[in-house]
Structure formats: structure tokens, C-alpha cells
Write a structure and sequence with these properties.
- The protein is mainly β and about 60 residues long.
- Helix content is about 10%, strand content about 40%.
- The protein contains one helix and four strands, in the order E-E-E-H-E.
- The protein has a four-stranded antiparallel beta sheet with strand order 3-2-1-4.
- Strand 2 and strand 3 form a beta hairpin.
- The longest helix is centred in the middle third of the chain and has 6 residues.
- The radius of gyration is 12 Å and the shape is globular.
Length: about 60
């Protein structure tokens, strides 16, 4: 659960930045119709569930 910090519309998908507990930010894309149906907008409180096969971990920029 966290707060939606940013939503960027990219054609038929929305890129979401979700701040979680002030410690991390999750970035993900969802179809526009799904985002609208679920009230995804900046400042909204959101809860997400993730499928393990859909998770891709990446190092922070500037780290090797």
C-alpha cells in the first residue's frame, strides 16, 4: 500500500510511480482503462498485488 506520486500517460498505458512507506518507489505500467477503473491518479492511496513472474529487479542508477 502506498501513495501514487506520479502518473504518466503513454498511449494506452499509464506509468505509475507508487511511493511505499517513504522508503521505496515502485514503478509499473497499467492499461489506461484499468487505471481509471481503479482510481489511479496522483495522490491516490493504492494497494497492489504482484505476481512473482512479473517482477524484474534492477539496480539503482549509478550502481554497478
Amino acid at each position: 500500500e502506498g501513495a501514487c506520486a506520479q502518473c504518466l500517460i503513454l498511449g494506452d498505458t499509464i506509468q505509475v510511480a507508487l511511493e511505499v512507506g517513504g522508503e521505496a518507489t515502485l514503478y509499473f505500467n497499467v492499461p489506461v482503462h484499468v487505471a481509471r477503473r481503479n482510481g489511479v491518479e496522483p495522490g491516490a492511496r493504492l494497494r497492489v498485488s504482484l505476481l512473482s513472474e512479473g517482477i524484474h529487479l534492477m539496480r539503482p542508477r549509478g550502481h554497478q
